């Protein structure tokens, strides 16, 4: 038994249709699902590009390697601790900012204003 019983037909010009296709595809949703989310006042978001995960993974590896090198260098007495700490802090701030942006919803595609609402 179908839960949704009310079909709705709308007419879009080429630009509107292309935007709807682009936004729903970027959000990994069907057009129907994308429009339902807009109706429910939630903003569908695009999935992060695959490159995002790769960059984040590499940044984490670099941070871990920096920590290992610092530990070894410190035990041998060859580290400029202040400079290392500044670089390390900068790296972890970038990782945290990337993670924070994605946890807040990532890249937004479209809005109610764009859809003429």
Description:
By secondary structure, the protein is mostly helical. The chain has a domain at 50-103. Helices cover 62% and strands 0% of the residues. It contains four helices and no strands. Helix 3 packs antiparallel against helix 4 (81-103). The radius of gyration is 23 Å and the shape is rod-shaped. It starts with 13 loop residues before the first helix and ends in a 14-residue tail after the last helix.
Identify the notable features of this structure and list them briefly.
rod-shaped, disordered C terminus, 117 residues, 62% helix, mainly alpha
Topology of this protein?
Blueprint: H1 14-26, H2 31-39, H3 50-76, H4 81-103
How is this structure best summarized?
This protein has 117 residues and is an all-alpha fold.
The biggest beta sheet reads: none
Number of strands: 0
Instruction: Report the uncertain regions.
Output: 107-117
Radius of gyration: 23 Å
Beta content: under 5%
**Count of helical stretches:** 4
